Structures are given as C-alpha cells and as structure tokens.
Amino acid sequence: DAASVLAPGLTMRRVAVVLIVWAFGAVYLFSVPVFSGFRLMSGDLGDWRLGVFLAEHWRMVFDGTASWPWRQPPYFAPAADSIAFTDPSFGLAIPYVGLRWAGLDPFLSFQITVIAYSYAGFLGFVALALRVGRVSMALATFGALGFAFSNMNLVKLIHPIYAPVSLLAVLALL
Q1: What residue ranges of the chain have pLDDT lower than 50?
Q2: What is the predicted pLDDT for the residue at 108?
Q3: Looking at residue 13, what DSSP letter applies?
Q4: What burial class does residue 164 get, using C-beta atoms within 10 Å of its C-beta: 0-12 exposed, 13-18 middle, 19+ buried?
Q5: pLDDT value of position 157
Q6: Burial of 39 (0-12, 13-18, 19+ CB in 10 A)
Q7: What residue spans of the chain are helical by DSSP H?
Q8: Residue 16 burial (10 A CB sphere; 0-12, 13-18, 19+)
Q9: CB 148 within 8 A of CB 90
C-alpha cells in the first residue's frame, strides 16, 4: 500500500479515516469561510489581505509579470531587499500559484492553501507519531487533532502567513 511509505501500518483506508477526522476539525477551525461559501475569511482581514498580496507577489514573480525584483515586494517600498520580512510567504507560494494558474481567484486560492497546509500537518503528525512514537492509530490521530487544531493554529488564522509552520511534522519525517 502506498500509504505505508509514510509510516508502518498506515494504509489508504486509514488515511481515509484520518481525512474524515481532519475534516471535522477543519470545518470547526475554518467554519467562517466554509459556512460562508468562502466569501468570508477567519481572523484579521488585514493580515489575510497582506497574505494574499504577498502570495500574488510570488505569482507575478513566477509568471514573469512582476515589474520589481523578487526580493522587494512593493508592500515595503521604498525599503530595499525586504522579502526577509515575509519569508514564510514563500512557503505558501507554490500551492497558491498553482491554484491561481488553475483559474481560482486570489482570496479563494489563499484560503484553500491555508486549509491544505492544515491537512498536510495533520497527516504528517499522524505519520510521525506512528513511525517515531510507535503509538496506536487512534492515539496518533488524537495527537494530530491537537497538533493541527490547537490554540496555536487558531492564532494562525489571525496571521495566516504562518500556515507553513504546519509542515514541521512533515519535515521531521525527512
């Protein structure tokens, strides 16, 4: 089974169960966008706008339409080489740009990217707990709920640019 590559005993059926458990947590955490049909965003609108602005910066850099250097998003003008102020934004860029190139609007693309990171972190934690912690599937899934939907992640809704932090469990597997 392809899923067993992530952790011993992990099957596609178990990944499906993990997806269902994650979906319950995600609907709770992302209830505002989900129940508004993705017309509203959770948290601070200004931070979400900044996140979308920076993700659009990367989209324009990747598709060659940016009229400024990649390391100098216009948000921080006239400061030179200011991309380091927003380094987590690069972590959002690849999935965001793919969604934009697929035709989705900027705000929807950004929301889907943040939500996708929560799933990657959830599944990554399950795999890490199974492989390294050698715990039961139930305990790994319960731990993933805490990892993906803890207070820290509620705070990330206010500052969505930090969504790539969800990949820490995935990085620990490497």
Answers
A1: none
A2: 94
A3: H
A4: buried
A5: 67
A6: exposed
A7: 12-29, 31-35, 45-62, 88-101, 106-128, 137-149, 151-158, 168-173
A8: exposed
A9: no
Residues 6+ apart with CB under 8 A from 9: 130, 137
Q: Check residue 3 and give its pLDDT.
A: 58
Give the integer Cα–Cα distance in Å for 155 and 56. Answer: 23
Q: How many other CB atoms sit within 10 Å of the CB of residue 137?
A: 17
Give yes or no for a contact between 53 and 85, defined as CB atoms under 8 angstroms apart: no
Q: Which of 126, 167, 172, 143 is nearest to 17 (CA)?
A: 126
30: its two tokens: 């992302």
Calpha distance 71→80 (Å, rounded): 8
CA distance 78 to 62: 22
Q: How far apart are CA 9 and CA 56, in angstroms?
A: 40
Provide the pLDDT for residue 125. 92
Query: What is the token pair recorded at 37?
Result: 């049909």
Q: 121 and 29 in contact (C-beta within 8 Å)?
A: no
Furthest C-alpha separation in the chain: 54
